Amino acid sequence: MARRGDTIELAVLGLLHESPMHGYELRKRLNLMLGWRSLLSYGSLYPALKKMLRAGWIEEHTVLSGATSRRPRIVYEPTDAGRAEFVRLMSEAGPSAWEDDNFDIRFAFFSSTDMEIRLRVLEGRRMRLQERLERVQGQLSLTQKEMDRYAAELQRHGVEQVEREVHWLSELIQAERAGTTAPQQPPGAKA
C-alpha cells in the first residue's frame, strides 16, 4: 500500500508538471482529484511541499498577487529533478500503481504515461479487484445468514461497486488495445 505522503507527492508533481501553482490552488486541485473521501488539509500539503523542496523536486518563487491583494504568494514549480521523478513514478507498473490509495492519482495523469505501462496498471487493477470480488462473493453466502438486512445490503452494494469498476476497467483495456478512446459512459451506468 502506498503511503499517503507518496500519493500526495505524485499528485503535486503531476499538477505542477501541468503548470506552476500556489498552495491554495494546489490544495483545491488536489481535493478535486482525491475526491470527498480524502480531503487534504494544509497540515498534510505543506509538509509534503517542504519535503519536496528539500529533495530538490520543486522550487518556490514569491510573486505579487496583483491589485486585489498586496500580500505576496508563494508559487511552486517542478525542477528538472522533479520532472524526472514524476516520469519515474508514472513509469512504475507494479502493485503500488494499482492499489486503492494510488490508482486514482495515477489514472488522472495517464496521458503522461506510455500505453504499455497504462495497460499493465489497468490489468493489474482489474486483477486485484477480481480477486477481491471472488473473496467477498465467497464470504457473502456464508455470512449472509448471520447479518441483519442493513449489513447484508451494504455488502451487496460493495460487490456491485467492484463489479462496475471491473467492467469499466475491461472497457478501458479493450479501448487501449484497440487504440481508441473508451466509451464516454460513466462507471455506474448500465450498458
From TrEMBL:
Q: Highest taxon of the source?
A: Bacteria
Domain named Transcription regulator PadR N-terminal: which ranges? 12-86
Asked if the record carries the keyword Coiled coil, the reply is yes
**InterPro entries given for it?**
Metal_resp_DNA-bind_regulator, Tscrpt_reg_PadR_N, WH-like_DNA-bd_sf, WH_DNA-bd_sf
Coiled-coil intervals: 119-153
Alphabetically sorted, this entry's keywords are: Coiled coil
Q: Which Pfam families match?
A: PadR (PF03551)
* Transmembrane stretches, start-end: none
Report the PANTHER family cross-referenced here.
CONSERVED PROTEIN (PTHR33169:SF26), PADR-FAMILY TRANSCRIPTIONAL REGULATOR (PTHR33169)
The protein here is known as: PadR family transcriptional regulator
Q: Which organism is it from?
A: Nocardioides jejuensis
